[in-house]
Design a protein that fits this description.
By secondary structure, the chain is of the alpha+beta class. It has two domains: 145 residues, Up-down Bundle (Four Helix Bundle (Hemerythrin (Met), subunit A)), CATH 1.20.120; 270 residues, paralog of FGE (formylglycine-generating enzyme) (Alpha-Beta Complex). Helix content is 29%, strand content 13%. It is built from nine helices and twelve strands. A hairpin with a 2-residue loop joins strand 6 and strand 7. The protein is globular. The relative contact order is 0.14. The N terminus is likely disordered.
């Protein structure tokens, strides 16, 4: 693909970068400088680290790697290398202060927009299809989601606002959908801004299986809790049982009980846990235990993608459950448009051809699968994005959440995390064999 044959490519790159920066500003301008520099959890960086890291990665890949320019701030490169310093240590580093970090990121962005106007979006793997610009837009949006997680962990009065979900609501009649046996195309070789772990497209076969039409709800998860699910070791993987015992876990993160009622803390607001929302802030171990208790299992990553992309009428795999068109507010809850998942049963227009709903947006969905490379995987443009995380230590999540921007979410997009993680916007659905 060339820039000339796709004249909107440059505009798309500019719009994606602009949208990401607007969100970054909203997340960092909402709090005081003290909040920006504080570490709200040892699991997360100070918000000011994310802000400067965004600018530093943009400078590294676009101004230095693409344009071949000298480093603007070689002194800060080690501070913002995500592999150099664990998150818990970052507050001790001589980080840029809030205003200096803002100025640095803004100066980088100004030079990047000049570069975007003058650079042919073709001629190298980094430039073809505007990949490097799309990669940086996705990187910033991924850090915006990380910063939103930090906002959820932050204590204090609410500082973020968003309208309540008002999506079309039409609960399906069937609790589960039959996914037929047979082959389908998994992954992609054609999505212009897809990342290395999504590639290449390849054939996979599955047996027939049943899959939940909707994500597991808070009400359904409370039934597991009420039945003693957190106190019965037979439902738990040994490492999960050890985790909940050592940390006295008895409910999803941010839940607590008052006077017989389950409440949750959500971005500084304490509220009753809503029955109809997908359950949120559960670990892989909790999702796996629930599935065992329900006589079911977590779907594999392959099964999840087949349910999300495969159209039995055409035999092809689409970009999204609803087809190849980019997501709209009628399809999915994405982009921090709301600060919570929509009710399970929303977005009928976002259903897959097989009838599975809400596969994109609302909550990341844990799968049974370890994070592994596809056949023919090639690290690009750097090993540290995916390759260093491959292995049984990380489990795959799919589908995105309300905190994910559409630029960083598609039917092939793969997320991964440690099975103990609960602060992320994670939920799940279950499956069973035929």
């Amino acid at each position: 693909m060339t820039t000339e044959s796709h004249p909107g490519l440059r505009e798309r790159a500019a719009a994606s970068l602009t949208a990401a920066r607007a969100r970054t500003a909203a997340l960092t301008d909402a709090v005081t400088d003290a909040d920006l520099t504080a570490q709200h959890s040892p699991l997360m960086s100070p918000l000011v680290w994310d802000l400067a890291h965004i600018g530093n990665q943009e400078e590294l890949w676009l101004l230095r790697r693409v344009a071949g320019r000298e480093s603007m701030r070689p002194d800060i490169d080690p501070l913002y290398d995500a592999f150099e310093h664990p998150r818990a240590e970052r507050p001790k580093l001589p980080l840029l202060g809030p205003e200096e970090a803002r100025r640095y990121a803004a100066e980088v962005r100004g030079r990047v927009f000049d570069l975007l106007e003058e650079t042919p979006l073709e001629g190298s793997a980094l430039l073809d299809d505007g990949f490097a610009f799309g990669m940086i837009a996705q990187h910033e949006q991924q850090h915006d989601e990380t910063m939103l997680i930090t906002h959820q962990l932050r204590r204090g009065a609410p500082v973020l606002t968003a309208p309540e979900p008002d999506a079309p609501y039409d609960p399906p009649g069937a609790a589960e959908v039959l996914i037929p046996a047979g082959p389908f195309t998994m992954g992609t070789s054609t999505e212009p801004w897809s990342l290395d772990n999504e590639r290449p497209a390849h054939r996979r076969d599955t047996e027939a299986f049943w899959m939940d039409t909707l994500p597991v709800t808070n009400a359904a998860y409370r039934a597991f809790m009420a039945d003693g699910g957190y106190h019965e070791p037979r439902w738990w993987a040994p490492a999960g049982w050890d985790q909940i015992r050592r940390h006295s876990i008895e409910a999803p993160l941010f839940w607590h009980r008052e006077g017989g009622e389950w409440l949750r803390r959500r971005f500084g607001v304490t509220e009753p846990v809503p029955d109809e929302e997908p359950v949120l802030h559960v670990s892989w171990y909790e999702a796996d235990a629930y599935a065992r208790w329900a006589g079911r299992r977590l779907p594999t990553e392959t099964e999840w993608e087949k349910a999300a992309r495969f159209d039995p009428a055409t035999g092809r795999s689409a970009r999204y459950p609803w087809g190849d068109a980019d997501p709209t507010p009628a399809h999915a809850n994405l982009g921090q448009r709301h600060l919570r998942p929509s009710r399970a049963g929303s977005y009928p227009a976002g259903a897959s051809p097989l009838g599975v709903r809400q596969l994109i947006g609302d909550v990341w969905e844990w799968t049974a699968s370890d994070f592994l490379p596809y056949p023919g995987f090639r690290a690009f443009p750097y090993r540290e994005y995916s390759e260093v995380f491959f292995g049984p230590e990380h489990k795959v999540l799919r589908g995105g959440s309300f905190a994910v921007d559409p630029v960083a979410c598609r039917g092939t997009f793969r997320n991964w995390d440690l099975p103990v993680r609960r602060q992320i916007f994670s939920g799940f659905r279950t499956a069973r064999d035929l």
